[in-house]
Specification:
The complex is a heterodimer of chains A (588) and B (462).
Chain A: H1 2-12, E1 13-20, E2 23-27, E3 35-39, E4 44-52, E5 55-60, E6 72-79, E7 81-84, E8 92-93, H2 100-107, E9 110-111, E10 126-130, E11 137-138, E12 143-148, E13 153-157, E14 165-170, E15 173-175, E16 180-184, E17 189-191, E18 194-197, E19 206-208, H3 219-224, E20 232-236, H4 243-253, E21 258-264, H5 268-277, E22 294-299, H6 305-324, E23 328-334, H7 336-349, H8 363-372, E24 375-378, E25 384-393, H9 403-409, E26 414-415, H10 420-424, E27 437-438, H11 441-451, H12 456-480, H13 487-504, H14 518-540, H15 545-548, H16 567-587
Parallel strand pairs in A: 8-22, 20-25, 20-26, 21-22, 21-23, 23-25
Antiparallel strand pairs in A: 1-2, 1-6, 2-5, 3-4, 3-6, 4-5, 7-18, 10-12, 10-15, 11-14, 12-13, 14-16, 16-17, 19-24, 24-25, 26-27
Helix pairs in contact in A: 6-7, 8-9, 12-13, 12-14, 13-14, 14-16
Chain B: E1 3-4, E2 7-11, E3 14-18, E4 27-32, E5 38-47, E6 50-55, E7 67-74, E8 76-79, E9 86-89, E10 105-108, E11 113-114, E12 119-120, E13 125-126, H1 131-134, E14 139-140, E15 147-149, H2 155-165, E16 175-184, H3 186-199, E17 205-211, H4 222-236, E18 240-246, H5 248-261, H6 275-283, E19 288-289, E20 295-303, H7 312-320, E21 323-327, H8 329-333, E22 340-347, H9 350-353, H10 363-387, H11 394-411, H12 421-432, H13 445-451
Parallel strand pairs in B: 9-17, 15-20, 15-21, 16-17, 16-18, 18-20
Antiparallel strand pairs in B: 1-7, 2-3, 3-6, 4-5, 4-7, 5-6, 8-10, 12-19, 13-14, 21-22
Classes of the chains: A alpha+beta (588), B alpha/beta (462).
The structure holds adenosine-5'-diphosphate and magnesium ion.
Adenosine-5'-diphosphate binds next to helix 4 of chain A.
Chain lengths: 588, 462
């Protein structure tokens, strides 16, 4: 007996051979790729990322200072997984789903190592309300009951890999996530909790084409370059151009039902800001605190780089889980470049053959696998759910030709190009309207027709046309000055300025302007269009641009942004505009 | 402690030691030369057969006959209250002729990451008395706000002016200063020391000096010693600490040198691929912790090689810090002090520290409007050079003049001129009032009514 015991132990227990940063080498370890292992005497968590002869290479999720060759390594035989169940919402996790609030309790204000903490509370009781009864047939993904988690209903499901069966016992009442709430005829038992390996997408019945926009309340996004629910978008930009503010605006105001926000290798204070702000902000749709629909993942720049690599997988797996309940989920990853750099750092320590700019050759594959996990789907239980993914990209020196930006643009359907020239003059959001695009425009057209106005698509093209024309004219102005332009074109410049300053510019820090619904967006653009029509008509009637520019009513237009009940004011301005133009025309 | 004489290779700052017992990663190492002198180093790579040690001083004198002692612990820094007023070397040894530091504690210099959940949002406005900072790129307590400069520009004077004038209006607590010099010249260091002495700041300062002729590799630990000290003063003694790190460019060069010695695959322009993470582990050591009294505010200074803001050093720094103050050569040539170019400058925490209850309700919008006006006027300068002033429209001419006014009145101020935030904002309004009111599209009507000199009904502090 003893001999046998010794032997199995021998197989599982390896020994450290080399430590150099977050990557360590073990020998005598019986391991498979992506097994989770416990490294050293302090049992630091790590993951097998390469097997070479006798050597097992492990990335360690915690600081490895002081760890010595000869210390033990133990294989758990499991892959890196997250815990899924009631208790996810309002949580803030590190990259490997350790709740940061629990870590503060366990080890104080600084993140020390060697402390484990499960993703969900295993002692808290939740009120489980069954939705099936004994004798019901259930398949993988079936919803068997509900828990009122926050203001959001958490739908408890049969795990996606389970075989069909018939309910024998289904309980009702207060249970922890581990207690059995459902037993099938064949004896299988299910608690509320599920575990899912983060690197494997959760299965769905079918992927569908997105047709509904994710409304964000940001004019340049919803109005000009919309993303669909279930779509993908990238926001590349140099530092300070507005990646994080845009991502946070989306997390706050987008009409998703669940938000997963990943701070991947970015600033600690930014996560704190979300943590302090969100509980006090209301979802414009439900009026409930935004925090209640949010899951945060914070693996900041100074936290271990291997856990940073894992953080995006942890986030997207949680997003998929809520999607499987039939929710529209949106996921923001700030910044995917830091994730790519984590891959690069690990890869270079593995002495892998570097690809472009030192990134591993599998960079493009990893990026597309990640964005592929977005989508509008028919879930295993037949419901519709979606995961929209919006990734920030931080190109070195702001140069978009670098590998992470380029590989991302090959995959995503929406490109919001941030521009330092705009942010430097405090034109926010600093999204360049000439370079950005959305490939969802066609598939969303019907929605805008029906839900906004039949002429919205036409007005949108008109505005884009004016902006495009302005860019061409600006080139001429740079050579000859604006006074040398023909009169109609001077008007175009004026109208383009109005589109930029009134419609495109939007202040995230203004209590009203921070969110602008589609109706108001439409009304604002219509008002600019009205000015444009009147101005050109006046010009045809012989009024000079110099006179047209003196129209007073339009000076009040920018104020509309800051007014909540803007309608009376807008009507007044439009009426006055009409009157002033009439006066001009009759004088001409 | 066991002493090994098994060095088999020395390359650059790295020493390779064979046949050791198991040695811990990042362990502190003492190398003993034949004449008894000791050099310190740290384990970078440890395995059964070879240990790689990075030496913090020059490797001069180290040979195969040198003894190697592994201390069994990572690098610790003795800290204590009596460090205030002291001058230490870049390696942490007293160089002011005073006694050794009496340690109250020994702290790991790597410093663990602050749990984001334990942080508290910085929001206390620091008045530096400099309009381009207070008005348009506001610093708050607990922020990390670097100065991006160029060789020969007066960044040190700006840092000193900030250190001298920084105060939180309404608070009686001053700042303790932790100053870490990395590879700066003796002359630059003297300028700092004299100013500290002149103003009495030295009593509340801890100074770490690694000068240009000190070992480059030591620069790797200098900022870590400084930040460990700052964290101790802030989070254990409850002080508000201002950390000045200069020059981060020299730090990064040292990092590059070690990477090269280790024959690593270099990243952009030869700097190590992990430089972002490495810098983050320094810059993120700033902030405020919930329930604790003190704070760490960081002002790192770096000189941009070739004045290029896209160079990896400013680039990676800007991606980590909470904004940047950019010092500009053209403004300097025009004789404007402080030559801060507000356009590429940014304070990301500004919004938390301004407005009602912090500075004044009109702060944000005045700032935005000045930016827009200055940016527009500045662009027109290029056009004027081509087409002449006459080809400009009336509107354009006004913005052009606004840009000049902005530089000469708002940006320009004296080295000892300490403007209150009210002075700065009122000056802003005065300049904005040279533009037609309808051009002030960034500001709501009510604020214009209340603060615009033309309509002012009484611009009092909130
Ligand atoms: N929509 C916006 N409205 C107002 N200010 C903005 C907006 N977007 C960005 N900013 C300003 O720009 C700064 C930098 O934005 P941030 O999103 O942090 O940049 P990045 O993440 O690209 O480095 C912010 O601190 C804020 O002052
Ligand atoms: Mg950011």
């Amino acid at each position: 007996m003893e001999v046998k015991n010794e032997k199995t132990k021998d197989k599982k227990q390896g020994v450290l051979k080399r430590i150099a940063g977050p990557v360590v080498t073990a020998v005598n370890l019986d391991a498979h790729m992506y097994d989770v292992v416990k490294v050293g005497r302090e049992a630091l968590m790590g993951e097998v990322i390469k097997i070479q002869g006798d050597n097992v290479i492990i990335q360690v999720y915690e600081d490895t200072s002081g760890i010595k060759p000869g210390e033990p390594v133990e294989n758990t035989g499991l892959s890196l997984a997250v815990e899924l169940g009631p208790g996810l919402l309002t949580s803030i996790y590190d990259g490997i789903q350790r709740p940061l609030a629990v870590l503060v309790e366990k080890m104080g204000n600084f993140i020390e190592r060697g402390v484990t903490a499960p993703g969900l509370s295993h002692t808290k009781k939740w009120k489980f309300v069954p939705l099936v009864k004994a004798g019901d047939k259930v398949e993988a993904g079936a919803i068997i009951g509900e828990v009122q988690e926050t203001n959001i209903v958490h739908r408890v499901m049969i795990p996606p890999t389970a075989k069909p069966g018939v309910i024998k016992v289904i309980k009702s009442g207060e249970y922890t996530v581990d207690e059995i709430i459902c037993t099938l005829e064949d004896g299988r038992e299910f608690p509320m909790i599920q575990r899912w390996p983060v690197r494997v997408p959760r299965p769905v019945k079918e992927k569908m084409n997105p047709t509904i926009p994710l409304i964000t309340g940001q004019r340049i996004l919803d109005g000009l370059f919309p993303i669909a629910k279930g779509g993908t978008a990238a926001i590349p930009g140099p530092f300070g151009s507005g990646k994080t503010v845009t991502q946070q605006q989306l997390a706050k105001w987008s009409d998703a039902e669940i938000v997963v926000y990943i701070g991947c290798g970015e600033r600690g204070n930014e996560m704190t800001e979300v943590l302090t702000e969100f509980p006090h902000l209301e979802d414009p749709k439900t009026g409930k605190p935004l925090m209640e629909r949010t899951v945060l993942i914070a693996n900041t720049s100074n936290m271990p780089v291997a856990a940073r690599e894992a953080s995006v997988y942890t986030g997207i797996t949680i997003a998929e889980y809520f999607r499987d309940m039939g929710y529209d989920v949106s996921l923001m990853a700030d910044s995917t470049s830091r994730w790519a750099e984590a891959m690069r750092e690990i890869s270079s320590r593995l002495e892998e053959m570097p690809g472009e700019e030192g990134y591993p050759a599998y960079l493009a594959a990893r990026l597309s696998e990640f964005y592929e996990r977005a989508g509008l789907v028919k879930t295993l239980n037949g419901a519709r759910g979606s995961v929209s993914v919006i990734g920030a990209v931080s190109p070195p020196g702001g140069d978009f030709s670098e590998p992470v930006t380029q590989n991302t643009l090959r995959i995503v359907k929406v490109f919001w190009a941030l521009d330092a020239k705009l942010s430097q003059r405090r034109h926010f959001p600093a999204i360049n309207w000439l370079n950005s695009y959305s490939l969802y425009l066609d598939s969303l057209q019907d929605w805008y027709d029906k839900e906004v106005s039949p002429d919205w698509n036409q007005i949108r093209s008109w505005a884009m046309g004016v902006l495009q024309k302005e860019a061409e004219l600006q080139e001429i102005v740079q050579l000859v000055g604006s006074d040398a332009l023909p009169e109609t074109e001077q008007l175009t410049i004026e109208i383009a300025r109005m589109i930029r300053e009134i419609f495109l510019q939007q202040n995230a820090y203004d209590a009203v302007d921070t969110f602008c619904d589609m109706k108001k967006q439409y009304d604002m653009m219509k008002a600019i269009r009205l000015y444009s029509d009147l101005a050109y008509a006046a010009q045809v009637a012989g009024v000079s641009p110099a006179q047209i520019i003196t129209i007073k009513a339009k000076n009040d237009l920018p104020q509309i942004k800051f007014i909540k009940d803007y309608k009376p004011e807008l009507a007044k301005i439009e009426k006055q505009m009409d009157a002033e133009f009439n006066a001009l025309r009759s004088a001409a | 402690m066991k002493e090994y004489r098994t060095i088999n290779k020395i390359a650059g700052p790295l020493v390779f030691v064979e046949k050791t017992e198991p040695i811990g990663y990042q362990e502190l190492v003492n190398i003993v030369l034949f004449d008894g002198t000791m050099k310190r180093g740290q384990v970078l790579d440890t395995s059964d057969d070879l240990v790689v040690v990075q030496i913090f001083e020059t490797t001069t004198g180290i040979g195969k006959d040198s003894g190697v002692r592994f201390t069994g612990e990572t690098i610790k820094m003795p800290v204590g209250r009596d460090m205030l007023g002291r001058i230490l070397s870049g390696g942490g040894k007293p160089i002011d002729g005073g006694p050794e530091i009496v340690p109250e504690k020994r702290l790991d210099i790597t410093g663990a990451a602050i749990n984001p959940y334990a942080r508290s949002n910085p929001s206390d406005f620091i008045q530096t008395g400099i309009s381009t900072i207070d008005g348009t790129n506001t610093l708050v307590r607990g922020q990390k706000l670097p100065i991006f400069s160029g060789a020969g520009l007066p960044h040190n004077n700006i840092a000193l002016q900030i250190a001298r004038q920084a105060k939180v209006p309404g608070s009686t607590e001053g700042f303790a200063v932790v100053f870490a010099a990395m590879g700066i010249t003796k002359e630059e260091a003297n300028a700092f020391m004299q100013d500290f002495e002149r103003t009495g700041a030295l009593e509340r300062a801890v100074v770490f000096l690694n000068l240009a002729d000190d070992p480059a590799v030591e620069r790797i630990i200098t900022p870590r010693l400084a930040l460990t000290t700052a964290e101790y003063l802030a989070f254990e003694l409850g002080m508000h600490v201002l950390v000045i790190l200069t020059d981060m460019t020299n730090y990064c060069e040292a990092l590059r040198q070690i990477g090269a010695a280790r024959e690593e695959v270099p990243g952009r322009r030869g700097y190590p691929g992990y430089m972002y993470t490495d810098l983050a582990c320094l810059y993120e050591r700033a902030g405020i912790i919930k329930g604790l009294k003190g704070s760490v505010t960081q002002i790192p200074i770096l000189t941009m090689p070739g004045d290029d803001i896209t160079h990896p050093i400013p680039d990676l720094t800007g991606y980590i810090t909470e904004g940047q103050i950019v010092v500009n050569r053209d403004l300097h040539r025009k004789g404007i002090y402080p030559p801060i170019n507000v356009l590429p400058s940014l304070s990301r925490l500004m919004n938390l520290g301004i407005g009602k209850g912090h500075t004044r309700e009109d702060h944000k919008k005045v700032s935005d409007q000045m930016y827009a006006g200055y940016a527009e006027g500045n662009d027109l300068r290029g056009l004027v050079a081509i087409v002449g002033k006459d080809a400009l429209s009336e509107r354009d001419r006004m913005f052009l003049e606004f840009a000049d006014l902005f530089e000469n009145r708002f940006v320009r101020q004296g080295y000892d001129e300490d403007r209150t935030i009210e002075d700065t904002l009122n000056l802003g309004w005065e300049l904005l009032s040279t533009l037609p009111v309808e051009q002030l599209v960034r500001i709501d009507r009510e604020l214009i009514q209340k603060y615009h000199p033309k309509f002012r009904t009484g611009a009092k502090k909130e």
